[in-house]
Specification:
275 residues; alpha/beta; five-stranded parallel β-sheet; 10 helices
């Protein structure tokens, strides 16, 4: 919320933000529940949630197309995750394939490809992968919604492991951890959303409850793993087309809801401008 807001003008900025949000001729919305809850904690203002749709990708893995895609899985991780997860996953996969006695031995070797290896590939290339392994590196990522909108199966760490991943971005910068001094008493409110990655006390105190408010935890039809073994079991046994169809249905349902919410908001603001 406070990105690029100078500390000397912070209180003035909070006042202006409050006046804009509460003015009937304006409409504000958040694209994920974490952001809405964080703003409510910092300002006392409850903003509606309208999910982000990646319709601009104009590609889809739905309706069986994913079944015909190549045996490669895209891996998305942040630059602040130092371990080369792509290399490790490929090494584990090769070792598993070389062990004929292992019951989880895959029928074919799947190769993992890092997004950063593709050099800004277009969405048409991204959707050609079988699925995506996403290690979330902030509390919200546009690429998550883009891939979900493409109906491309998503493999994410389990909800219990999300706190180890999502608090690595700008949100964890203490510079932005301030609240409007005119916000109502917070004693009856939730834990503070400020979770510095290098502050163990605050991390263990608030990371779990707040990571559960991200769409990484809330969206349905995500494939979750707690270990490499879990991940490989999903890779070997998942009906990708079924998952893609389920994602497609959720996209269609939420798009109707989002369109209705925006239409209602625009109509309300337009009505005031006529008066």
């Amino acid at each position: 919320l406070l990105l690029a807001v100078d500390g000397n003008t912070r209180n003035q900025w909070f006042q202006q933000f409050r006046s804009m949000v509460t003015a009937p001729q304006h409409f504000f919305a958040c694209y994920n529940p974490f952001l809405s809850s964080m703003i409510e904690y910092q300002t006392g203002l409850a903003l509606p949630i309208i999910r982000l749709h990646g319709l601009y990708t104009q590609v889809s893995a739905g309706y069986g197309r994913v079944q015909d895609s190549r045996d490669e899985i895209l891996v998305v991780k942040g630059p602040n995750i130092c371990i080369d997860s792509v290399c490790l996953l490929n090494r584990f996969m090769q070792n598993l394939a070389n062990d004929p006695k292992d019951p989880n031995n895959p029928s074919s070797v799947v190769k993992f490809i890092g997004l950063d290896e593709l050099g800004g590939a277009p969405y048409e290339v991204l959707v050609s992968f079988k699925a995506t392994v996403l290690y979330p590196y902030d509390v919200a990522l546009a690429i998550f919604y883009e891939i979900y909108t493409m109906c491309m199966p998503l493999l994410l760490p389990s909800e219990e492991l999300l706190p180890f991943f999502v608090f690595r971005g700008l949100h964890s910068n203490a510079e932005f951890h301030h609240s409007d001094p005119y916000t109502p008493d917070k004693q009856n409110m939730t834990l503070p959303p400020f979770v510095p990655a290098m502050d163990p006390a605050k991390w263990f105190y608030a990371a779990g409850p707040w990571s559960s408010r991200t769409d990484f935890a809330k969206f349905p039809h995500l494939l979750r793993f707690s270990s490499v073994a879990d991940l490989f079991a999903l890779v070997s046994n998942t009906d990708w087309s079924k998952v893609s169809r389920q994602m497609q249905r959720f996209n269609e349902e939420t798009l109707v809801q989002s369109a209705a919410a925006w239409a209602h908001a625009v109509a309300a603001v337009a009505a005031l401008s006529v008066l």
